[in-house]
Amino acid sequence: MSRVIAGVFAASCLALLVVMGMFAPEHLAQPDLSQAYASPGELPPFGADNRGRPLLEYAQQGAQVVALPAMLGGLVVLLFGTLGGLLACVGSGRVQAVVQGFGEVVGALPRLVVVLVVALLLPQDMRGLTPIALTWALLAAPGAMDEAASVAGRLGGARFVEALRAHGFSRARIYLYHIVALNLRPVVVRQAIETVMQVVFLEIALSYLALSDSQPSFTHNDSVRSWADILYLGYQVILDVETGHALALGLGLVGVVALMSLSVTWAVRAR
Amino acid sequence: MQRWYVRPLVRLIAALLLPAAVPAVITALIWALPGDPAAIICPPEVCSGTEELAKRWNLNDGPVHFFTEWIGAALSGDFGRSWRLQQGAPVAPMLIESIPNTALLVLFSFLPILLGVIGAATRVLPRAADGLLRILGLPPSVIFALAASAIITIKYGSAAFGDEAERVKLVLGALALGLADAAMAGAVSGVRGLMESERKQRYVRFGILRGEGVLQNTLPNALPAIIGQLRARVLHLLSGAVIVEVVLQINGLGDLLWGGTLYQDFGVVIAAAFGFAVISAGLLITQALVEIGVALHVRRAPKVVAP
Q: Which of B261, B266, B304 best tests the A interface by mutation, with the highest count of A CBs <10 A?
């Protein structure tokens, strides 16, 4: 698959996610029991839930819940990764020791444990996916910084900068173009998009676990449905409830996000 | 040039601080929340005796008093009492019951990863397998856990809490955990990349010319980085274990932490987080010891290995 096709596919998926979220209804439609469990053929495009409400609205609200926080998380990792790579090119041993210490402390605990503690301690009015996504991104940042630093190290670090300076390039061009755009790009963009995917999956997992305990989710308010609601509905298919279409939709949405991540990684890979 | 002992030393210091730092941070944050911690357990508008309760549970004298009492008791095996999940019940038996299940789950899921890593390091596992593992690892742990839960429900129905079903849950949970979120794929491709780049080093070619084996030369230099990757994988598994345990209803440390979080039970959360911190500290110490061992073995600074 060429880079262009992968890039177009990834951009389309991302645009779909954003547009779905932008046009999400504030509240689900009124129940229409005559449409309960309607298949996609009966109520296009995705069918209906147990109360006849379109699953399209679930998908839109779910996209709204994840789109912005996931992208914010990705951006944080992108920035930290870039910073890690650039610091490695500065060549300061002390700075690297500080970065390593930060990584050791931040990365020492299982991420979900930290996320749950943060979710627990968030005041009621601050609850939402954004602080959780940012926490996840901060926990993912040391890994991104480490990988970017090793790429910069393989490049030659400070010696690479000196060599290009000798060729007459300005510092701004060396750091922004030669190091970030040409060399760090595959690593930091991959790390960022993986964080986007992980935040989406984290939201689904946290909401699903809360649903299975009949408790409100940490990631969104009760009036909004997440993609986990679609999976939760779809899972009832094993109890012989006609919700196979919801399961297919839930898995399809997860698949789209995973494929988007793969495509971005493919599109930005090093030549 | 960074001295060889800096990294293991930083890890050892972090390992020593972690089990105390985690409950300390949670305690500080509990007091930073609006309202009195005792009122969380026993809101004055619905229950009487809030002050008595605060005194009995060391909540009456500020965060430092609570923390020092809690950590002192924890060192003697008393992890306090549940605030809400099983109100008033001691947390220590909950921890004792849950830790073996989590340990088994993580161990079962780690074994195939370890085999994969060994296979990648020794080239027994072909590179062609990486793509397959990557595709298998795409779905998140919640999806794999749901599939495992569906199997359990269909096969065992109402007997899903019997001994046999519990064993099957552990095995399927471990499978879900080991494959999901690219746990296996990441470990295998990471170690393969590490070993391949190490094999290209000149000293390895000289070693081969001297009649020595490739692994004999590369392993001592790559081992610290491999151990680092394995530690990251175990942390990844511990993180995913929370989801798998809740979905499959395995009575583990993650399930306990989730229950505590959901019901705002700080007593349970602080103890469960302490449990995770102790495990994480153990992993840090293991990595530091391996790094020190390798450094002493090669009698020089361990070579920096590009991950």
A: B261
Return the CATH fold of A3-267: MetI-like fold (1.10.3720)
Q: Cα B58 from chain centroid?
A: 29
> For all residues of chain A together, what is the average pLDDT?
90
Q: How far apart are the CA of A111 and the nearest CA of chain B, in angstroms?
A: 6
Q: What is the DSSP-derived secondary structure letter of residue A48?
A: B
B10-67: pLDDT as tens digits: 889 889 999 999 999 999 988 888 778 887 777 777 777 778 888 888 888 889 999 9
Residues in chain A within 8 Å Cβ distance of B7: 100
Task: Give the residue extent of every domain in chain A.
Answer: 3-267
pTM across the whole model:
0.89
Which residues in chain A touch residue B240, judged by CB atoms under 8 angstroms apart?
Answer: 112
pLDDT digits (tens, 9 = 90+) for B150-171: 898 888 877 777 888 889 999 9
Distance of residue B239 Cα from the nearest chain A Cα, in angstroms: 5
C-beta separation of A2 from A208 below 8 A: no
The answer to whether the CB atoms of A120 and B260 lie below 8 A apart is: yes
Who contacts B173 (Cβ-Cβ below 8 Å, separation ≥6)? B105, B108, B109, B145, B148, B244, B245, B248, B250
For A117, which residue in chain B has the nearest alpha carbon?
A: B261
DSSP, collapsed to helix, strand or coil, labels residue B90 as strand
In chain B, what is the straight-line distance between the N-terminal and C-terminal CA atoms, in Å?
A: 18
pLDDT, tens only, B209-254: 988 888 888 888 888 889 988 999 999 999 999 999 999 999 999 9
Give yes or no for a contact between B237 and B110, defined as CB atoms under 8 angstroms apart: yes
Burial B250-267 (b: 16+ CB within 10 A, else e): bebbbbbbbbbbbbbbbb
Give the position of tokens 């930060």: A102
Separation in Å, CA A102 to CA B10, B26, B54, B138? 10, 19, 36, 29
Residue B22 and residue A198: Cβ atoms within 8 Å? Answer: no
* pLDDT given at position A112: 92
pLDDT reported for residue B300: 58
Q: Which residues pair with A48 in a beta bridge?
A: A54
Q: Is the dihedral of CA A107, A112, A113, A118 positive or negative?
A: positive
pLDDT of residue B54: 83
With 70 as the cut, is the pLDDT of residue B305 above it?
Answer: no
**Could you tell me the end-to-end alpha-carbon distance of chain A, in angstroms, rounded to an integer?**
14
Contact B30, B67 (CB under 8 A): no
Res B278: pLDDT: 94
Place domain B6-33+79-298 in its CATH homologous superfamily.
MetI-like (1.10.3720.10)
- pLDDT average, residue stretch A235-260: 92
- pLDDT recorded at residue A103: 78
For chain B, the domains span: 6-33+79-298
